[in-house]
Amino acid sequence: MKKVFILILFAAGFVSVSQLSAQALIDEAVLQRLQLNQTVREEIRALVVEQIRMEQELSADQNILQARLQRMLIDEDPDMKQVENLLRESLELRLKEQMGRITRTREMRKLMGEDQWALFLRTRAEIRERIENRLNDNSPDRSGRLENSQRSGPDLSGSAGRR
């Protein structure tokens, strides 16, 4: 039972790089809408690219730690000190990841200024909401059929996306 709990705890700590990549795409769409000057957009893109690279490296390191932990837990009586050390390493990687995100956010905010930052956050939330709504509209209901938006065909009235 302890082994299962430790594996679940360890696996829960992993960050999805695909989520970060999706976030980067959303952020890029927001930057285009904000009409920031080219220099600021390039600096922000560089921050995002660096963050993605760092998160990929951390994810790979987490995968290695997970494999090591799984290997240890094959043993009927694993060295719990080593298990604890691996879990600590995992937590340190998560700390590094969070600090990187916070640093990137602060740097983006400084580059944009407070007004643009507030607009960035609002616009990003709107885009996320639209994406979520599209995903929910395209998800099959319990019978396996697509929701109304897909069953009735495309909206040819030109009113799609208006509020």
Major sheet summary line? none
Q: What is Rg? A: 21 Å
User: Helical stretch count?
Assistant: 6
Rounded average pLDDT: 78
Alpha-beta content class:
mainly alpha
Distance between termini?
A: 52 Å
Which word captures the global form? elongated
Summarize it.
By secondary structure, the protein is mainly alpha-helical. It is built from six helices and no strands.
Tags for this model:
single chain, 163 residues, mainly alpha, 6 helices, 0% strand, disordered C terminus
Question: How do the strands and helices of this protein lay out in sequence?
Answer:
Elements: H1 2-12, H2 17-34, H3 38-74, H4 80-112, H5 114-137, H6 148-151
Helix pairs in contact: 1-3, 2-3, 2-5, 3-4, 4-5
Can you offer a commentary on this structure?
- α4 crosses α5.
- This protein is mainly alpha-helical and 163 residues long.
- The protein has 6 helices and no strands.
- The longest helix has 37 residues.
